[in-house]
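Researcher: Structure for this, please.
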Amino acid sequence: QVQLVESGGGLVQAGGSLRLSCAASRLTFSNYHMGWFRQAPGKEREFVAAISWIGATYYADSVKGRFTISRDRAKNTVYLQMNSLKPEDTAVYYCAATTTPGGERGYWGKGIQVNVSS
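Model: Predicted structure, C-alpha coordinate format:
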Protein backbone atom coordinates (compact mmCIF):
# COMPACT_ATOMS: atom_id res chain seq x y z
CA GLN A 1 0.00 0.00 0.00
CA VAL A 2 1.36 3.41 -0.99
CA GLN A 3 2.10 5.72 1.92
CA LEU A 4 2.83 9.43 1.91
CA VAL A 5 3.72 10.90 5.30
CA GLU A 6 4.10 14.64 5.79
CA SER A 7 6.17 16.30 8.49
CA GLY A 8 7.58 19.71 9.35
CA GLY A 9 4.45 21.76 9.84
CA GLY A 10 3.75 24.04 12.74
CA LEU A 11 3.39 27.65 13.77
CA VAL A 12 5.59 30.42 12.41
CA GLN A 13 5.44 34.20 12.36
CA ALA A 14 4.85 36.08 9.14
CA GLY A 15 8.09 36.45 7.24
CA GLY A 16 9.46 33.22 8.65
CA SER A 17 10.26 29.90 7.03
CA LEU A 18 9.27 26.27 7.30
CA ARG A 19 10.29 23.16 5.42
CA LEU A 20 7.77 20.43 4.84
CA SER A 21 8.86 16.88 4.09
CA CYS A 22 6.96 14.04 2.49
CA ALA A 23 8.31 10.54 2.82
CA ALA A 24 6.90 8.12 0.28
CA SER A 25 6.92 4.36 0.30
CA ARG A 26 5.75 1.58 -2.01
CA LEU A 27 5.51 4.02 -4.90
CA THR A 28 6.86 3.76 -8.44
CA PHE A 29 8.18 7.30 -8.56
CA SER A 30 8.79 7.46 -12.27
CA ASN A 31 5.04 7.18 -12.83
CA TYR A 32 4.11 10.21 -10.74
CA HIS A 33 4.60 13.88 -10.20
CA MET A 34 5.18 14.62 -6.53
CA GLY A 35 3.43 17.70 -5.31
CA TRP A 36 1.93 19.78 -2.58
CA PHE A 37 -1.57 21.09 -2.25
CA ARG A 38 -3.18 23.08 0.54
CA GLN A 39 -6.60 23.78 1.91
CA ALA A 40 -7.37 26.80 4.04
CA PRO A 41 -10.44 26.94 6.29
CA GLY A 42 -13.57 27.53 4.25
CA LYS A 43 -11.72 27.26 0.94
CA GLU A 44 -11.24 24.60 -1.67
CA ARG A 45 -8.04 22.65 -1.90
CA GLU A 46 -5.54 24.30 -4.23
CA PHE A 47 -2.35 23.35 -6.01
CA VAL A 48 0.88 24.70 -4.54
CA ALA A 49 3.83 23.05 -6.28
CA ALA A 50 4.90 19.89 -8.09
CA ILE A 51 8.05 18.23 -9.33
CA SER A 52 8.35 15.62 -12.04
CA TRP A 53 10.55 12.54 -12.08
CA ILE A 54 13.08 14.37 -14.23
CA GLY A 55 13.03 17.44 -12.00
CA ALA A 56 10.74 19.85 -13.81
CA THR A 57 9.00 22.09 -11.30
CA TYR A 58 5.64 23.80 -11.29
CA TYR A 59 4.32 26.47 -8.91
CA ALA A 60 1.12 28.30 -8.18
CA ASP A 61 1.45 32.01 -8.87
CA SER A 62 0.75 32.76 -5.22
CA VAL A 63 3.93 31.00 -4.06
CA LYS A 64 6.37 31.64 -6.91
CA GLY A 65 9.59 33.13 -5.62
CA ARG A 66 8.81 32.14 -2.04
CA PHE A 67 8.41 28.35 -2.09
CA THR A 68 10.77 25.78 -3.53
CA ILE A 69 9.97 22.13 -4.17
CA SER A 70 12.73 19.56 -4.33
CA ARG A 71 13.21 15.83 -4.05
CA ASP A 72 15.76 13.38 -2.74
CA ARG A 73 15.42 10.26 -4.85
CA ALA A 74 17.65 8.20 -2.57
CA LYS A 75 15.42 8.97 0.41
CA ASN A 76 12.15 8.84 -1.54
CA THR A 77 11.35 12.21 -0.01
CA VAL A 78 9.96 15.44 -1.37
CA TYR A 79 10.45 18.80 0.31
CA LEU A 80 8.69 22.12 0.22
CA GLN A 81 10.83 24.98 1.44
CA MET A 82 8.55 27.85 2.35
CA ASN A 83 10.09 31.28 2.86
CA SER A 84 8.59 34.72 3.45
CA LEU A 85 5.47 33.10 4.81
CA LYS A 86 2.28 35.11 4.97
CA PRO A 87 -0.82 34.65 7.11
CA GLU A 88 -2.70 33.64 3.96
CA ASP A 89 -0.39 30.64 3.64
CA THR A 90 -2.11 29.18 6.70
CA ALA A 91 -3.65 25.87 5.64
CA VAL A 92 -3.48 22.13 5.84
CA TYR A 93 -0.77 21.07 3.40
CA TYR A 94 -1.10 17.76 1.59
CA CYS A 95 1.58 15.78 -0.16
CA ALA A 96 0.42 14.01 -3.29
CA ALA A 97 1.74 11.69 -5.95
CA THR A 98 -0.31 12.54 -9.02
CA THR A 99 -0.34 11.41 -12.62
CA THR A 100 -0.18 15.02 -13.88
CA PRO A 101 1.29 18.14 -12.26
CA GLY A 102 -1.51 19.87 -10.43
CA GLY A 103 -3.91 17.04 -11.10
CA GLU A 104 -5.60 15.23 -8.29
CA ARG A 105 -5.56 11.66 -9.52
CA GLY A 106 -3.13 9.58 -7.51
CA TYR A 107 -2.16 9.09 -3.90
CA TRP A 108 -2.48 11.51 -1.01
CA GLY A 109 -1.03 12.04 2.42
CA LYS A 110 -3.17 12.85 5.42
CA GLY A 111 -2.05 16.47 5.56
CA ILE A 112 -0.18 18.64 8.00
CA GLN A 113 -1.12 21.97 9.53
CA VAL A 114 0.83 25.14 8.83
CA ASN A 115 -0.13 28.27 10.76
CA VAL A 116 1.36 31.65 9.99
CA SER A 117 0.70 34.36 12.55
CA SER A 118 0.65 38.05 11.71
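Researcher: Any notable elements?
Model: The first strand starts at residue 3 and ends at 7. The mean pLDDT is 95.
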